[in-house]
Design brief:
- By secondary structure, the protein is of the alpha+beta class.
- The protein has four domains: 1-63, Winged helix-like DNA-binding domain superfamily/Winged helix DNA-binding domain (Arc Repressor Mutant, subunit A), CATH 1.10.10.10; 76-126; 142-236; 241-316, Alpha-Beta Plaits (2-Layer Sandwich).
- Helix content is 43%, strand content 26%.
- It has helices at residues 2-17, 23-30, 34-46, 76-90, 98-111, 114-125, 142-154, 226-235, 251-258, 282-291, 301-316, and strands spanning 21-22, 51-54, 60-63, 127-129, 156-163, 169-181, 186-192, 197-202, 206-215, 241-247, 263-268, 271-278, 295-299.
- A hairpin with a 5-residue loop joins strand 5 and strand 6.
- The protein starts with a helix and ends with a helix.
């Protein structure tokens, strides 16, 4: 019975990973005969999974959309990745779903095996939201993220390679403190034993992280908390572009959309001035794009040129 149950779960997992399976191919993957495969498919149907079949030379099976959501079968890495995504959403990375994300995250963690639960719990308790929101722009390896969370929790020194903004790579040894999710990126706040100072590291730039087994006594962070430390560092980054634009919309409406990233000043009932500093022109370009109103770039001229380039690309699309 145990083998049959395991095979049925394996069958369900395969059906969920591909739109359509040929019968012979699916039977071969499971290591059973076509007749046994039919019995396993019937067993899934009895459990409420809407498995459709097609006869003939190209006959096979596919999992159809059902009236209700049946249980899903996911592997260890998929479970951790799901928890990471829910963690980000629960912190407001996706507007309007924070509350439901918290509920789902609690359910997922509750049914996880112990070997996974301690990884996800470490990530949840060692992460501090920064107060920013948005969708992550840089890909993060869930294994790296959970390993960093574990060494934060266990107060264990971490060794890793780090690629700086100028693409120079260096080896670091650090005492990890907390993870911070800005909505757009993940940062590790740690005391850098190589540079003998507190640093914030972008997790997507960290490679080959290794536990050292060496414990440490926590140092006092020179900020109210890890989120404040990261936000202060981001605000103090050099910003070569001082952007100013006149927007044909009421100041209140513009503040509601992009006020968290810039300063909005009314210059009339239906006109306002937007100013911001940025290390890249991509941010102001995207901000002006989501305003939903006509605007005029005052400076810098490089922004107007980028807008023309983006506009041409969008028109071609």
């Amino acid at each position: 019975m145990a083998n049959t149950s395991n095979r049925t779960l394996r069958l369900l997992s395969l059906l969920q990973t591909r739109r359509y399976w040929l019968g012979g191919e699916l039977a071969e993957r499971l290591g059973v005969s076509v007749r046994t495969l039919r019995r396993d498919v019937d067993r899934l149907r009895e459990l409420g999974y809407p498995v459709e079949s097609q006869r003939g030379v190209d006959g096979g099976y596919q999992l159809a959309a059902g009236a209700a959501l049946p249980p899903l079968v996911i592997d260890d890495e998929e479970a951790v990745a799901l928890a990471v995504g829910l963690q980000a959403a629960a912190q407001g990375a996706v507007e309007g779903i924070a509350e439901s994300s918290v509920r789902v995250l609690a359910k997922v963690v509750q049914v996880m095996p112990a070997r996974l639960r301690h990884r996800v719990e470490a990530l949840r308790t060692m992460t501090v939201p920064s107060g920013w929101s948005g969708s992550p722009r840089a890909g993060i390896d869930p294994d790296v993220l959970t390993l960093v969370a574990l060494v934060c929790r266990d107060q264990e020194q971490l060794r890793f390679s780090y690629t700086a903004a100028d693409r120079r790579e260096s080896e670091r040894l650090a005492e990890p403190h907390r993870l911070v999710c800005t909505g757009y990126r993940w940062y590790l706040v740690a005391y850098d034993l190589t540079r003998h100072d507190w640093r914030s590291f972008r997790v997507d730039r960290m490679t080959r992280p290794e536990k050292t087994g060496t414990r440490f006594r926590p140092r006092e962070l020179p900020a109210a908390d890890a989120a404040a430390f990261v936000n202060e560092g981001l605000e103090n980054q050099p910003a070569p572009y001082a952007v100013e634009a006149l927007i044909e919309a009421p100041a209140e409406a513009v503040r509601e959309r992009i006020g968290r990233w810039c300063t909005v000043e009314a210059v009339g009932e239906r006109r306002c001035r937007m100013t911001m500093t940025s290390s890249t022109l991509d941010w102001p370009t995207m901000a002006l794009g989501v305003v939903g109103a006509d605007f005029q770039v005052v400076h810098p001229p490089e922004l107007a040129e980028q807008l023309r380039e983006w506009g041409s690309r969008f028109r071609r699309a």
